[in-house]
Amino acid sequence: MIEYAALKFNVASIPMSENPKKVIVGMSGGVDSSVSAWLLQQQGYQVEGLFMKNWEEDDGEEYCTAAADLADAQAVCDKLGIELHTVNFAAEYWDNVFELFLEEYKAGRTPNPDILCNKEIKFKAFLEFAAEDLGADYIATGHYVRRADVNGKSRLLRGLDGNKDQSYFLYTLGHEQIAQSLFPVGELEKPQVRKIAEDLGLVTAKKKDSTGICFIGERKFRDFLGRYLPAQPGKIITVDGDEIGEHQGLMYHTLGQRKGLGIGGTKDGSEDPWYVVDKDVENNVLIVAQGHEHPRLMSVGLIAQQLHWVDREPFTGTLRCTVKTRYRQTDIPCTINALDDDRIEVIFDESVAAVTPGQSAVFYSGEVCLGGGIIEQRLPLTV
């Protein structure tokens, strides 16, 4: 066992537990939750783990990683000497996450299931189960975010590792949920987390990060989605109205997409690749243009709805801040104008490519995540 005092990083954001508090760590079978459990042990918490099974569909060994993930989570808990509980939230996931996911794709939008999963499962169903059934004082996850208590309210901050910061996915949390949650790896960089796991001899030390749909795994997306929504082939046309191909379903494509269009060649001598710039849902038409900076791909702003502000106070008036319209995007300076209680207009300082309805716009003031909303429509550079 390595010496905690010898670690060369700051864990000041993990509150010390002078009187042992019970914390339930969401053990995914990955390295981040594994190290989170150990860090909390070092801070004096009474630590137990919880493995959540949230998907019942069995697609065979190629995609069904739940059993292997549970085995890894159990091995880590055994190594750390902590109890591992299991719970099945498959019904909650289907009703509150997956059905909406399908509805959004059916409507031609591109949803982000990870954000809804965090809201409905990890920080609602899990939080309630941990508190009510397991007697937890806190829950903890392996998310790369930080928390800070300011004027009696818990705020959500970006993770220290800019490459792994996951605040974009957690903007739907309120300060009450943040106050009941601990994020031990938020003050660390990913290589440090892996080094700790290696030094501890954890089986998850070199396990690759998951990149699939939340709790569903790394399936071939087109095949998976086609099992639940019937494909509706249609025309691919250029911004000039020329028909140049056929798509297999609008749901398989998103704004800014380049690969997988099944079209090639050039137009008017241009060798620039084709990009999706719009969807005509009513007529089932995919619209494309050449070049990643084509004017039809650019937006000067957006309209967002289904707003959530971390401090729960409705936004009114005008606000200067920054925004991300997708994960890992560089912050975009912007001005927010309130339209009504649940809709805002966001104007970018500079035009932005591939603003996608159905995705989330998440707002920041420096390190603090202010909240966000669902992109209802983009405000195009050209009409």
TrEMBL record:
GO biological process: methylation; tRNA wobble position uridine thiolation
Domain tRNA-specific 2-thiouridylase MnmA-like C-terminal: 301-375
Domain tRNA-specific 2-thiouridylase MnmA-like central: 222-290
Disulfide bonds: C117-C214
Binding sites annotated in the UniProt record for ATP: G26, M27, S28, G29, G30, V31, D32, S33, M52, G142
MF terms (GO), sorted A to Z: ATP binding; methyltransferase activity; tRNA binding; tRNA-uridine 2-sulfurtransferase activity
Pfam families: tRNA_Me_trans (PF03054), tRNA_Me_trans_C (PF20258), tRNA_Me_trans_M (PF20259)
Region: Interaction with target base in tRNA, residue numbers: 112-114
Active site, UniProt feature: C117 (nucleophile), C214 (cysteine persulfide intermediate)
Chain intervals for the UniProt region annotation (Interaction with tRNA): 164-166, 326-327
Principal cellular location given in the protein's record: cytoplasm
Matching InterPro entries: MnmA-like (IPR004506), MnmA-like_C (IPR046885), MnmA-like_central (IPR046884), MnmA-like_central_sf (IPR023382), Rossmann-like_a/b/a_fold (IPR014729)
Record key words, sorted: ATP-binding, Cytoplasm, Disulfide bond, Methyltransferase, Nucleotide-binding, RNA-binding, Transferase, tRNA processing, tRNA-binding
Subunit structure: Interacts with TusE.
PANTHER family attached to this UniProt entry: MITOCHONDRIAL TRNA-SPECIFIC 2-THIOURIDYLASE 1 (PTHR11933:SF5), TRNA 5-METHYLAMINOMETHYL-2-THIOURIDYLATE -METHYLTRANSFERASE (PTHR11933)
Function: Catalyzes the 2-thiolation of uridine at the wobble position (U34) of tRNA(Lys), tRNA(Glu) and tRNA(Gln), leading to the formation of s(2)U34, the first step of tRNA-mnm(5)s(2)U34 synthesis. Sulfur is provided by IscS, via a sulfur-relay system. Binds ATP and its substrate tRNAs.
Annotated protein name in UniProt: tRNA-specific 2-thiouridylase MnmA
Organism whose genome encodes this protein: Salmonella enterica subsp. enterica serovar Infantis str. SARB27
